[in-house]
Amino acid sequence: MTKKSALQKARASYQPKLPSALWGAVKAVEGAPTESVANQTEIKSLFPTTYGLPVLTFEKNTVSKVSAPINVGVILSGGQAPGGHNVISGLFDGIKAINKDSRLYGFLMGPGGFVDHKYIELTAKIIDDYRNTGGFDIIGSGRTKLEKVEQFDKGLEILKELNIKALVIIGGDDSNTNAAILAEYYKANNAGVQVIGCPKTIDGDLKNEMIETSFGFDTATKVYSEVIGNIQRDCNSAKKYWHFIKLMGRSASHIALECALQTQPNYCIISEEVEQKNMTLADIVNDIANVIAKRAANGNNFGTVLIPEGLIEFIPAMKKLIAELNDMLAANTQFASLDRAAQREFVLNNLSADNAAIFASLPEGVARQLTLDRDPHGNVQVSLIETEKLLSEMIGKRLAEMKAAGEYVGKFSPLHHFFGYEGRCADPSNFDADYCYALGYNAAQLINCGATGYMSSVRNLSKPSVQWIAGGIPITMMMNMERRNGEMKPVIQKALVRLDGKPFLKFAENREKWAIDTCYTYPGPIQYFGPAEVCDQTSRTLYYEHNSK
Ligand code: FBP
Q1: Is 203 a catalytic residue?
Q2: Which of 57, 158, 163, 509 could form a disulfide with 117 if both were Cys (CB 3.0 to 4.6 A apart)?
Q3: In terms of pTM, does the model score above 0.85?
């Protein structure tokens, strides 16, 4: 390991807090059989042995039984999220508490390492170096999609060789979907290997009644909010720039909404609202230009605009264009080998007339970004689309028109930012350090009670950690059928921002005031030491979702 900073040394000794139900021996209490959120008949037929399982809740057990050692494999899958190392250290401590001779193997660089048999044994010495640290560098991560029977069989060979009884896949909605498919395959074929998922993603879109938040969201949004706050202070000092800040988060706007609640910017776009109101790009541009003009009339030629990275997919006309492009790219694998001009020509010639017209009207750079390779799960790589520049360019033009019409008197100097990678590997907040450790420790208990096809679940998260509820949720319960790479596939349903949810309503109640007045808040850096109200605050999203005020 590289030289440790003073903070790393101090954080190494932090002991994450566990829910009281996991303090000693546990027993699993079964709930009623479950159903998938939609498309029950299709999901049931695709998951005949793992469909309909009950929700499991762990309670303290008065009798502790002696269990045999268990060997477990772990994979980090997809984008980094703060706290991944604590899931692994919780899992390690959990299986060692079950039996000190249990062993943990980490597959290297994501699901690819599992298929290619690349692994290391995670010893106490290695684990101790990574406790409470950010990043996924303990074993690395990757985006290889586990979907083919040959991959499952190849992976099984190494599981058998290492006598691994269970595999824990730490990932987002797509990786947990794959965990469910793998669990079903191993169970249906009596492979003797359990598969457990863990809810990871800074995007916050892997959540439902039982999974209140994915890990990493808390830390990442605190890091972005710190920097947005710093920009706002700069902007309120110099009073001369409009800052267009794009925020990661894929399709859902949870990150943008959370950052808006923490920093009170002048404008924040919520993609889900854009879709619901059937807004065009021109509507969004007009709205922001009007705010800029009103502030300018008060002498304020500065401000901040937050933009969720997935915006483009939610503008109804763009959504149709992207859906047609997805199918076209999936069906024409030769597309990637064409040169730039030929690709544009190909797209314009093959799209339906309406979509071709929209494609042609976009700035060439943005149009091209829409045709870049999809990720292995068929998603448009929205982090590569420069929406912040697209918007500010269009707003600049609109303001010039307004000036000519005597409707705007200010000066418009835009600056652009994209915050994403800055927050994904930050050292976890106390919340994420505790939550992740509990998810990993809880996964060990799920393995010990024989569960497979379950996601590790720790809930009641807006309460102190001792009161958190630990257990397992059948992954099939979260699934529905969606179109991916041109075909209908079973996938975990993504949670988008709910426009009737308390976090959005809180934002909507205040946004007009935040737009015209300057009401910035400056959250400052994550604090690890000090009063609980500073160090142990959950995200605003979690707070508003679970508290009445
Ligand atoms: P996950 O769904 O894998 O957690 O993705 C998180 C994320 O940070 C998204 O917000 C972003 O769009 C994407 O990863 C970027 O992908 P990459 O790391 O491959 O550049």
Answers
A1: yes
A2: 158
A3: yes
